[in-house]
Each structure stands twice: as structure tokens, then as C-alpha cells.
Design goal:
The protein has 747 residues and is an alpha/beta fold. The strands form 6 sheets. Strands 1, 2, 3, 4, 5, 6 and 7 form a 7-stranded mixed β-sheet that branches. A 7-stranded parallel β-sheet has the order 22-23-21-24-25-20-26. The longest helix is centred in the N-terminal third of the chain and has 27 residues, at 8-34. The structure holds adenosine-5'-triphosphate (ATP). Residues 12-39 form a coiled coil. Residues 194-577 form the UvrD-like helicase ATP-binding domain.
């Protein structure tokens, strides 16, 4: 912290004036809000004012802003001095902006830092100039407690470590360090004061194209995706509504964990769901009576437990991967084409006008052309409707031309008779077009080896087709579909009937996207207007690798073609200490992944991760309880005891609940994260963070890619402390090569 900054007096004076002005605004608002009215418009305005008042009273008065930026405009050579806060505050008498909202265009300068060549975008174009000063304030109850100028400069001048080390590990400015060091209150919070430049680029990216973000563990993906929603609603309230925003996240616990930050960011009524919860609602009406979707957790055992049938694992993986792949999407597209080409008996439509015995006809070539090309972009059933309408018009046209030629005047009765006749002819003609029942069609395609071989792309191996069809047949025999059937079913519904949900969302965030399949994301894109999606994830954390994305190319090269996606990477990790991240990176190194997924921790040190062993199970529980006590004594509020499986979590809870008061067991059905001391399986910790993590039974993580990713996820959850427990003499192959200087081992 800079003690007595030379501008301290001046800045405190400015703050005092701002606070006084805010107090006046509070008085005015209180008066206005008190007014009772039955005018609807006034009520709406009143509601907005009440919200504004609440913000000013609760937060704005004590800490109206966190930053200042001085911008010298190229065009006019005027210096704008702008104070930036969580919400904009305007004086109602003079309309002067006391504080500029962090989402306003000019505030972008604050996040891009000092530069001689700076700019920001407005509706009217780009404004260029020089950022002369970027200043951060720490403010408590209207008093400045710290002033921090610039970012890199300050850190290096104060000499925290050698400058080379900054570059290697990623520098961090003091203001950010002060923010990160606060003990974590376990929930996600807003980071408006410390958003980093590369994060700012993502938050403010073009709204009308998909963005895909590969970000390492703790790089702020979830946080910035939510800040992006806040940014979008602030800047595009004419075209976007927050109630039409959707956030897809991996589980209900996670949704609960992030739910507090949205209102804090000024976005209240965003929809949130897991993909399966949302998609199953749409898919269920397509299923025959009595059919169910299997529990997604059922397969975890097959993939994460030792001693499982390897052939079954292979078949299952092939089936799940195929059902989520773009190859499956191609097969479904081809299926519709195949129906049109092979199963529709295009015939010439002819009819006779009995009074003159005139024969009219529309050729089969014309009808085929209409169905497959002219209306080819429409869903199957809508194509049929369009064809019927078109044929009727054409029949009318032909007949009336003939009547005119023959100088025949049809009376009302004649016209009605003719209308009826045409309907009958069309009804009969179109009845030979197959009626497609979505589920029956999907079932046929996914279980008929010959058909699937014919329609799937050539690079899908025959043996994969055979495994997919045979194992799907067995699954369907029990009147069950699996979660991976849902996306192809919805995609087929889109091709056949059209998804009436199409364009339902103004913007969609897909978090932990690596665990969804390409086809699932393609379905999400179908229901999002203008492909306005923010897709974030980390390939290194793809713990459902047997079904999820393998690379981002599947999206950038396959799902998002027009408009193409903008791809970003975030390598800087903000959550855990350097010591924790270095140790976790060692686990990743064992599986060959691209360099982009290796995390660079920010310059924040802490205790080295510790590995402790125990000889007997009783000792394991004693040690765990002791560690929890010690962590609590140190002041850590959220501690997670993490096991490999849900079953082990249950056992741990049973063994520990007597020794640890208020210990909460969490499973995949839970939807509320209570804080405190919790015990849960590793896959559920996804996306969450805790002050400290105690990892149990690490010897159970084998040398497989899945286990390495799972262990990596669990190891990257703590903000401050990581403690690892294992049975004496047995150690996970994933940890046995970690150098001593990265992991302190106590035998
Ligand atoms: N610019 C920042 N300033 C302050 N804190 C930050 C910043 N960026 C991220 N953080 C903090 O880092 C932590 C991790 O953020 P978040 O959970 O959004 O990351 P993530 O990339 O989604 O992580 P993971 O993939 O591991 O779940 C949070 O505590 C968040 O507040």
C-alpha cells in the first residue's frame, strides 16, 4: 500500500465531495420513492429508483468508486478525469457524472491500463488518446486507505521478488494482491475493481458472435462470463433482456454457488440450469410412454473405478462419444436427406376438371425441386406445409387460367366444390410422404447398423458403428435412453419439427463447456439468438473426457462456422497460491496436453502443499479431524474434504461427523452449498473454491488421463491450503514424481 500518496489530500477531498453529493441524492430518492402512485409507468420508474437508492445506501455512499483514469483525447486535447465505480452515479440537478459505471465504454480504458496509444469504442466510433493515469483506491467507509498508481511499474518498483520472476510467473499489481489475499468467503464475488486487461477483452467482446475461452483453473472464466452478462445488459438493454439470458453450468451445487454474484452485478433474473435438466424437459415429450432417461452418475463408476470391464468401457466410450459428435449431427442431417431422396415417392400430381375434361399437372421434378431445394432450409414438417400451400396455389393458378380461357364463370358453390376437391387431391397425394416420428426415427438410425453406416461420415470406423448400434439396442430394450441421447433427439426434432425454443435466449453462457459434447453445444447455439454465446472451459479439467470435448477445434472449426467464433486463452490463474499451482501442474504434465492449458499462478505465495500418510483407517480419520481443527484455528472458513467417489464421501462423512461439528455431506443431488466444512466427491468440486482442501485416499488415483484430470481439478480448488492424505506405502503414480521442493512429504 502506498502510504500518504502525494495526492492523498486532494483525493480524499474529492471523495468527501462525492459522498456529500451522494447523500443529497439519497435524500431526493427517499422522497421520490415514498410517493405512492397507481400509475403503472411511475411504478416502474419508482422500482428502479428504489433499487438505485438501495445501492447508494448500502454500498455507494461508503465506497462510491474504486478507480480513476485520466484520458487525454487526441482530437480535442482535453483531459477527461473519470472516477469508476460499480454503478454510475449522476447528480440529478446538474446531470454531472460523479461516478462512471465500470461497464460504460470509457471505463474500458481503466482496464487496459496506462498507454500512449489508447482508445475506446462508442456507438459513434472510436475515441483515441492517451491514458495519462490509472489509479486504484482502497476505500473503507468513505475514507481512502490506499492509493495505487499503475500496475506493473508499482510492483517492480517495490521489488517483490526479482523482475524476471514476474515475467515467468505472471506479475500482479499490489491492488490485485491486496484483493486476492483477503480470506475467501467461499462464494464467487465481483471483481470489477481488478478485472485484468485480457479478461476485459472477453467481457467486452462483440455480442453478435460466439466466443470460446480456454482458461486455466482459477483464471476467472466463470467470474468474467457473469461480468459479461452484466456488461451486455448495461450496454444493450434495448435489444437484450436479462430474463432471456441463460447460464448452463455443470451441476446444481455450482449454480447455487454462483447465484449470489449475479444480483451483485446488477443482473437479477437470469435463467440457470444444467444442460441435462433443461434439455430433458424438451426431450421427454418425444419419448414413448414409460420411457426414462438414465442417471448420468451411473457411468462414473465404469470410468473411475478400478477393476471394471475394459471392453464395456470401450464400447460405452465409443457410444457416448459418437452420440455427442458432429459425425452424429451429420448422420442426422443425412437421414433427413435420405428420407427425401429414398423414401418419398415423388410422383407427378395430376387432376382433371370434369366439366371440360381438362387435365392439369405439376411434374414430379418440380415437386422434388420444391421439397428438397426451394423449401430445403425448413424443418421437415414445415416443408410439407409449405409444399402443400405452394401446390394449392399452383393448382388454383392453372385452373383459373383455364377457366378464363374457356370463359367459364364459377359460382360460389362451384368454387367451394373445387376447393374441396383440391384439398382431397392434396391430402391423398401428400399421404404418401412419410410422417416422421422423432423418437422412432432416431431409434431406427442409432440401432440400424446398415443405415447408420450409410449415413455417418466415412471416417467413423465400422467397428464404432457396430458398437454404437448394438449397445444402443440393448439400452433401448429396457425402455431407457441415456443423457447422451438427448442432444441428438433435440437436433432431430429441430430438423423435423423445428425447435420452437429456437432463438429463445438473447445470450447464453456455457460454463465448464469441456464437459459438454459438440452436439450439445450445437443444440444450445440453435436456441440462442445471433449465436450470441460465451463458451468457457478448460480442456485440462475435462473429467468427463469419455463424452465431452477433446479440443476446442470441435467448436471453432465445427459448430461455430458462420459467424466464426472468437477464441481466447487465459493462462493466468488467480485462485490458488504459487505453491499449490506448481504442484497441480506436475499432475498435468503426466498427460500430454497442449501448453496452453498449463496455469501460470499470480505472484501470491503461501504454504507448500503437504502430503501426509497414515497406517490404519482409524488414524486416517483422526488425522483428517485434526487437520480440519488446525485449519479452523487459523481462521479458514471453508474447508472441503474431497474423496475420489461419492461412496467414499459417504464413508468419510460417517466416520468424521462425530469429530467435526456441522460437517455436511454433499452429493450430486444437492443444490445448496452451505460453506463451512464439507465432504464431497472430486467431480463435484468442479468450479467451486475453498479456503483449504484436504484430499483423501489419493493412492486411488491411477495413472490414467481421467484420474489425472480429476485429481488436477481437486488440487486446484483451494485458495490457501492443500493437504493430501494417503495410506502409508501406497502413493498415487500421479504424485510420485513431484519434486520435494513442490510437495512437502511427511511419512
Ligand atoms: N481479475 C481478478 N481480480 C481478482 N480476483 C480474480 C480475478 N480473476 C479471477 N479472480 C478470482 O479467481 C478465482 C477463480 O475464479 P473463477 O472461479 O471464475 O475461475 P475459473 O477459471 O472459472 O476456475 P475453474 O476453471 O478452476 O473453476 C475467484 O476467486 C475469482 O474471484
Amino acid at each position: 500500500m502506498t502510504i500518504r500518496h502525494p495526492d492523498y489530500e486532494q483525493e480524499q477531498k474529492r471523495l468527501d465531495e462525492t459522498v456529500s453529493a451522494i447523500e443529497r441524492e439519497i435524500e431526493i430518492l427517499r422522497e421520490e420513492v415514498r410517493e405512492v402512485t397507481d400509475d403503472y409507468v411511475k411504478q416502474v420508474v419508482g422500482y428502479k429508483k428504489a433499487k438505485e437508492l438501495r445501492y447508494l445506501e448500502d454500498q455507494g455512499k461508503d465506497k462510491p468508486y474504486f478507480g480513476r483514469v485520466d484520458f487525454l483525447k487526441d482530437e480535442t486535447y482535453e483531459l477527461d478525469i473519470v472516477y469508476i465505480g460499480k454503478r454510475g452515479i449522476v447528480r440529478s440537478d446538474t446531470f454531472d457524472a460523479l461516478v462512471v459505471d465500470w461497464r460504460a465504454p470509457i471505463a474500458s480504458l481503466y482496464y487496459s491500463g496506462e498507454s500512449k496509444d489508447a482508445f475506446y469504442r462508442t456507438d459513434k466510433g472510436i475515441v483515441r488518446g492517451e491514458v495519462r493515469l490509472k489509479r486504484n483506491f482502497a476505500i473503507e467507509k468513505g475514507k481512502i486507505t490506499g492509493i495505487y498508481d499503475g500496475a506493473v511499474k508499482e510492483t517492480i518498483r517495490r521489488g517483490i521478488g526479482h523482475p524476471d520472476e514476474f515475467l515467468e510467473e505472471g506479475y500482479i499489481d499490489e491492488f490485485l494482491a491486496a484483493n486476492l489475499n483477503q480470506t475467501n468467503d467461499s462464494r464467487l464475488k465481483d471483481i470489477v475493481a481488478t478485472i485484468q486487461s485480457e479478461q476485459n477483452d472477453i467481457i467486452r467482446a462483440d455480442k453478435d458472435r460466439p466466443i470460446v475461452v480456454q482458461g486455466v483453473a482459477g483464471s476467472g472464466k466463470t467470474t468474467i462470463a457473469l461480468h459479461r452478462l452484466s456488461y451486455l445488459i448495461y450496454n444493450y438493454q434495448d435489444t437484450m433482456m436479462s430474463k432471456k439470458f441463460m447460464v448452463f453450468a455443470p451441476n446444481r451445487l455450482f449454480l447455487n454457488y454462483i447465484s449470489d454474484v449475479l444480483p451483485e452485478l446488477g443482473v437479477d433474473d437470469v435463467q440457470q440450469a444444467t444442460f441435462l435438466d433443461w434439455a430433458a424437459k424438451l426431450a421427454k415429450p418425444l419419448l414413448p410412454k414409460g420411457w426414462r432417461i438414465t442417471d448420468p452418475q451411473k457411468l462414473l463408476r465404469l470410468f473411475f473405478e478400478e477393476g471394471q470391464d475394459l471392453r464395456e468401457r470401450e464400447i460405452t466410450q465409443r457410444r457416448l462419444r459418437f452420440k455427442g459428435s458432429l459425425a452424429c449431427k451429420t448422420a442426422l442431417d443425412n437421414y433427413l436427406r435420405y428420407l427425401a431422396e429414398q423414401e418419398i415417392p415423388f410422383k407427378t400430381l395430376s387432376f382433371v376438371y370434369s366439366r371440360t375434361q381438362q387435365v392439369f399437372s405439376i411434374s414430379k421434378e418440380t415437386i422434388r425441386e420444391l421439397f428438397t431445394t426451394v423449401f430445403g432450409h425448413l424443418p421437415y414438417r414445415k416443408r410439407l406445409e409449405a409444399l402443400r400451400k405452394h401446390l394449392k396455389q399452383e393448382m388454383n393458378k392453372q385452373l383459373f387460367a383455364h377457366l378464363r380461357e374457356m370463359r367459364i364463370d364459377l359460382d360460389k358453390q362451384g368454387l367451394t366444390r373445387f376447393e374441396r376437391m383440391m384439398e382431397q387431391i392434396l391430402e391423398k397425394y401428400l399421404s404418401s410422404f412419410p410422417q416422421v416420428d422423432v423418437f422412432a426415427a432416431y431409434r431406427k438410425l442409432i440401432t440400424d447398423e446398415t443405415l447408420l453406416r450409410r449415413l455417418a461420415p466415412d471416417d467413423v470406423e465400422d467397428s464404432v458403428i457396430a458398437d454404437v448400434c448394438q449397445s444402443s439396442e440393448a439400452l433401448f430394450a429396457n425402455e431407457r435412453i441415456e443423457p447422451e441421447d438427448v442432444a441428438p433427439l433435440l437436433y432431430l426434432r429441430h430438423l423435423v419439427d423445428g425447435l420452437e425454443q429456437a432463438g429463445q435466449f438473447d445470450h447464453t453462457v456455457v460454463d465448464e463447456a469441456q464437459d459438454l459434447s459438440a452436439l450439445e453445444i450445437a443444440v444450445i447455439a440453435l436456441v440462442t439468438k445471433r449465436q450470441s454465446l460465451t463458451v468457457v472451459g478448460d480442456i485440462a479439467q475435462g473429467i468427463h473426457g469419455y463424452r465431452g470435448l477433446q479440443t476446442w477445434d470441435e467448436l471453432t472449426g465445427g459448430v461455430f462456422v458462420q459467424p466464426p467464433a472468437a477464441y481466447y486463452t487465459l493462462a493466468q490463474s488467480y485462485r490458488s497460491t504459487i505453491e499449490i499451482m506448481r504442484c497441480a501442474n506436475e499432475v498435468l504434465r503426466r498427460i500430454r496436453l497442449p501448453e496452453s492449458v498449463m496455469a501460470r499462478p499470480v505472484l501470491r505465495h503461501g504454504e507448500m502443499p503437504k502430503m501426509l500418510s497414515y497406517a490404519a483407517p482409524a488414524e486416517k480419520w483422526e488425522q483428517t479431524a485434526r487437520l480440519v481443527r488446525e485449519l479452523q484455528e487459523e481462521g479458514f472458513q471453508t474447508v472441503a474434504i474431497v474423496t475420489k467417489t461419492a461412496e467414499e464421501s459417504k464413508q468419510a462423512h460417517k466416520a468424521l461427523r462425530g469429530a467435526i461439528s456441522e460437517l455436511v455431506l454433499l452429493g450430486s443431488k444437492d443444490s445448496r452449498y452451505p460453506g463451512g466444512v464439507t465432504v464431497m466427491p472430486a467431480y463435484l468440486t468442479k468450479g467451486l473454491q475453498f479456503d483449504a482442501v484436504i484430499l483423501l485416499d489419493v493412492e486411488r488415483y491411477t495413472d490414467s488421463e481421467w484420474d489425472a484430470k480429476l485429481l488436477y481439478v481437486a488440487m486446484t480448488r483451494p485458495v490457501h491450503r492443500l493437504l493430501i492424505l494417503h495410506e502409508a506405502g501406497r502413493i498415487s503414480p500421479l504424485l510420485c514424481d513431484v519434486p520435494d521442493e513442490l510437495l512437502s512429504v511427511t511419512l
